[in-house]
Every structure is written in structure tokens, then in C-alpha cells.
Amino acid sequence: MNDRIRTDIAHNARVWNYWLGGKDNYPVDREVGDRVTSFHPSIGEVARADRAFLGRAVTYLAAEAGVRQFLDIGTGLPTADNTHEIAQRVAPESRVVYVDNDPIVLTHARALLTSAPEGVTEYVDADAHDPATILAAAGRTLDFERPVAVLILGILNFVLDTDEARSIVRTVMAAVPSGSHLVLTHPTFDAELGGEGNIAAMEFWNAHATPPITARSRAEFASFLDGLELLEPGIVSCARWRAPDGAEVAQYGAVGRKP
Ligand SMILES: C[S@@+](CC[C@H](N)C(=O)[O-])C[C@H]1O[C@@H](n2cnc3c(N)ncnc32)[C@H](O)[C@@H]1O
């Protein structure tokens, strides 16, 4: 086992994997995952809705917007439909760079490196707090003269300072050209989406698991998309993005295009 992997405290990537029905988690992750579920019973649906949103957004970007490059920051453990599989199903030549800082994701990264021969996948072990390093590493695989879809799903919630979170997004989006996209999800306490359950759930998480998490309001979420053209249907529960019948979850989702 990678000696950076700690099995005495729950880690987000592993608990997320547990909620998605995966097997790459430890007893401590399942215990914390179950306790969080007791505070916020729909958390498993949040995880599934987030992945389904990723599927719809990447399919749209590859099939309709013609995007062929993807930078997926805060990838998570490999699961059923990873970004490169979705994109390369539409366009086998798609190039995908994955980034995460959890040692367990690094250990399983091989499963993300199964690119179609026409395309490329790469994995970068890096921290979202350091976008310059991410961009330098991604620039070895992606051509920043051509549009890039930047995926930041369920990870800005681990950047506790909102100004810093905005600055990370701005730095990454400044490096990519017009026609690039930002795909974003984020949990909320907003009652409009039934987010009240997140209050006790996140309090419990922050006392027993890592990394610490925060929720954001609709206005804060919107501020991450400043300067981008919001694609229809705008900012909605990620379960409802281009899926009008989806059962709402307390996780905002949106896609913005760089003009
Ligand atoms: C909730 S999961 C989301 C996974 C995937 N993006 C999805 O939507 O299904 C968040 C991921 O972000 C990663 N993460 C958290 N903080 C990070 C940081 N500072 N830098 C890089 N990755 C981070 C975690 O390890 C975890 O894999």
C-alpha cells in the first residue's frame, strides 16, 4: 500500500467511492459515509446525480460543442464512466488530463490511463490550491491554443476560502482560449435545493474526516462563472441540468463557455 494512504481517517475520494457503490474504500470511510447519510439521507443520490451530470455535460461538449480536450480537476477514484470514456465514445481522439491529490486516486490511476489509441489520457498528482503546477503539467498533454473543457466537480468545496476558490477558477480559465468551457458542481445549504441536511452532515464531516468541506450559496456558485456565457438551463440542481425530470439534489451544477 502507498504509505501516504491513511486508513485511520475517512478521505473524501474513498467515501465518494463508497456512496457510488465502489469497493475502493476502508471501514473508516464506510462508517463516516453512513453517519453523513444519517444527517443528509440523499447524499448517495447527490453523488450519482453529480456523475450523471458529468456524463451529460461531457457528451454535450464532445458531440455538440466539438471540444476535444478535457482537464478534470478533482477526478475522484475511477468509476463506471470516466471522463475519457465518455468523451472518447463520441470522439476517440479526445485528450484528457486528470488531476487529484489523494494518494488512493494515484494508486488507481492506471484505470484512468486506458485511452483509445487515437487519443491520450494523463494523470497528474497535484493540489488544486496550486493551479500553476496543474497548468504546467497539463500543458504537456493539452494544447492551450485550442478549446479545453475544464471540469471542477465537487472539489471547490474543499477550498474553504471563497476568494481563493474564485482565483483558482480564474487562473485556470485565463490559460485556455475562447470556446473553452467550465463544468462546475458544488454542494449548498440553500433551502431552495433542500440543502439544510448538509449543515449537520458537513459539521460531522469536518470533525471526523478529511479534507474539510464547505457549502456555498447560489450567488457564490454564480461568482465562479463570472465572465463566462452560461449554457441553458443556467444554474440548477445538477440533477436537473438538461434532465428536467431529475429529482433535485442539494448540489448546484452549471456549464459556462468562455466567449
Ligand atoms: C467529491 S469528489 C468528486 C469526484 C469527481 N469530480 C466527481 O464529480 O465525481 C472530490 C475529489 O476532489 C479531490 N480533492 C479534494 N481536494 C483536492 C485538492 N486540494 N486538490 C486536488 N484534488 C482534491 C478528492 O480527493 C476527491 O477525489
UniProtKB/TrEMBL annotation:
<dbReference type="Pfam" id="PF04672">
    <property type="entry name" value="Methyltransf_19"/>
</dbReference>
<keyword id="KW-0648">Protein biosynthesis</keyword>
<dbReference type="InterPro" id="IPR006764">
    <property type="entry name" value="SAM_dep_MeTrfase_SAV2177_type"/>
</dbReference>
<protein>
    <submittedName>
        <fullName>Translation initiation factor IF-2</fullName>
    </submittedName>
</protein>
<keyword id="KW-0396">Initiation factor</keyword>
<dbReference type="GO" id="GO:0003743">
    <property type="term" value="F:translation initiation factor activity"/>
</dbReference>
<dbReference type="InterPro" id="IPR029063">
    <property type="entry name" value="SAM-dependent_MTases_sf"/>
</dbReference>
